């Protein structure tokens, strides 16, 4: 009788303990902050229904970046190290395929858990993006903390796919004007100021610095060609509804005319025919006086170069714009973080995303030269504080002028952008006038569109 009573009491105690544990687990997972404090990833552990914490066992999450510049140093500083510090059992391992491998090939043969991209229709078509709505709800993620310019672009980019949310913004990539102070000093020309210039003012300044000296061809102003200039006005390449070329407009004519004016600067095109000046010309050859370009496109690589012992005297100024657009800069590019729809660690991966978008995580990226994606003006005051290459630079110029939300990128846009490069080359090398360049590019784009309709639809 005593043994029977003892067994019954034992069962009661065990049942009570189990119920208490379940109740406690539900309470601890009730808010984003509580979940983060507990380290809970929210993954169901088989039939038991127990909550599996990030700290229970070693976990490796794979990471793949496609599109945006994201150096290995940036990956380590902004993602791998902070996550390992937050969750010591978690390792973020970067997948680095060969440069010739397309994103489609990577995503069809591998299953990276976390994706770092600029959300595009091309990548959405791969089916690799998890719809994050369920995870956002499960972890009570506060979407109101995200900058509208960033989050609205992502949501706009996925229209036509229902109400899915395929990504969260990681950083806002803005444009600035880089300039080589050594070239300005060499030719006795005053540096750009902290005041935003018009494009006409920038072109005139560039003319003073475009010359050949001791066999070196110096170029005064480089603007990332037609594609870069179009971002000053937020211009789409193709019509959103019809998919036809949309470059024969008054706004696009302004862009072409400005680009032609830059190309026609004596000495811009080198004697060997070089016209498409790039990041390497600014950083490594150091023959570009001013380059209007993305923030992320240059800061990370310049820091890597510094670590290799290569430094020069450069600084940043507000990016110019057309005279009636002063006060705005260019379209901002949104670098986003996503979860692979085939990942076996979706809940854990979302916990990683959640931390990267916390004040602490976003402070890390701000101090290392990226503009945060969350609403917290105090973080901008710390911009660049931890990255040596930005020490002593006029980093406040990053925030002069309001960036625009990037235009909706039609599924055909990435495929037909080569036609704008061809148009630029035609004006730079072959003497095409603006009207001819636009007409030829329009015809080429519309032919491409007919082909693309049969291959990717829309």
Automatic annotation (TrEMBL):
Compartments reported by the entry: Cell envelope
Could you list this entry's UniProt keywords, alphabetically sorted: Signal, Transport
Q: Which residues form the signal peptide?
A: 1-20
Q: Which GO terms describe its cellular component?
A: cell envelope
Gene3D superfamilies, per the entry: Periplasmic binding protein-like II (3.40.190.10)
Q: What is its main location?
A: other
Keyword Signal attached: yes
User: Which Pfam families does this chain map to?
Assistant: SBP_bac_1
**Protein family according to the UniProt entry:** Belongs to the bacterial solute-binding protein 1 family.
| Record protein name field | Extracellular solute-binding protein
């Amino acid at each position: 009788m005593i043994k029977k009573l003892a067994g019954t009491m034992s069962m009661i105690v065990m049942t009570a303990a189990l119920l208490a544990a379940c109740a406690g687990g539900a309470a601890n997972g009730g808010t984003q902050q509580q979940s983060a404090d507990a380290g809970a990833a929210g993954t169901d552990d088989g039939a038991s229904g127990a909550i599996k914490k990030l700290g229970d066992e070693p976990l490796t999450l794979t990471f793949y970046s496609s599109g945006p510049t994201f150096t290995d140093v940036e990956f380590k500083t902004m993602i791998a190290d902070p996550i390992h510090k937050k969750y010591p059992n978690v390792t973020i391992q970067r997948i680095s395929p060969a440069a010739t491998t397309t994103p489609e090939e990577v995503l069809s043969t591998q299953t990276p858990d976390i994706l770092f991209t600029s959300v595009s229709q091309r990548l959405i078509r791969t089916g690799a993006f998890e719809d994050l709505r369920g995870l956002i709800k499960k972890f009570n993620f506060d979407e109101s903390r995200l900058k509208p310019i960033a989050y609205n672009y992502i949501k706009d980019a996925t229209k036509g796919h229902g109400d899915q949310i395929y990504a969260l913004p990681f950083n806002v990539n803005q444009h600035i004007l880089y300039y080589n102070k050594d070239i300005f000093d060499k030719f006795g020309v005053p540096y750009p100021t902290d005041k935003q210039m018009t494009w006409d003012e920038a072109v005139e300044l560039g003319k003073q610095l475009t010359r050949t000296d001791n066999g070196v061809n110096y170029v005064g102003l480089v603007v990332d060609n037609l594609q870069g200039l179009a971002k000053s006005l937020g211009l789409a390449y193709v019509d959103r509804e019809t998919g036809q070329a949309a470059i024969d407009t008054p706004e696009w004519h302004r862009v072409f005319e400005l680009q032609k004016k830059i190309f026609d600067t004596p000495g811009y095109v080198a004697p060997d025919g070089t016209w498409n000046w790039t990041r390497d010309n600014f950083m490594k050859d150091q023959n570009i006086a001013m380059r209007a370009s993305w923030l992320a496109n240059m800061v990370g690589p310049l820091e890597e170069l510094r670590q290799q012992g290569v430094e020069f005297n450069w600084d940043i100024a507000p990016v110019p714009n057309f005279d009636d657009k002063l006060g705005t800069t260019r379209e901002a590019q949104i670098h986003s973080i996503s979860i692979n729809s085939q990942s076996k660690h979706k809940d854990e991966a979302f916990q990683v995303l959640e931390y990267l978008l916390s004040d602490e995580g976003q402070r890390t990226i701000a101090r290392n030269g990226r503009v945060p994606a969350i609403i917290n003006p105090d973080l901008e005051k710390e911009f660049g504080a931890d990255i040596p290459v930005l020490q002593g630079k006029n980093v406040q110029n990053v925030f002069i002028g309001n960036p625009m939300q990037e235009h909706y990128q039609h599924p055909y846009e990435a495929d037909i952008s080569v036609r704008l490069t061809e148009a630029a080359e035609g004006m730079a090398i072959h003497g095409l006038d603006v009207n001819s360049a636009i007409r030829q590019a329009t015809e080429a784009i519309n032919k491409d569109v007919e082909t693309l309709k049969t291959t990717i639809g829309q």
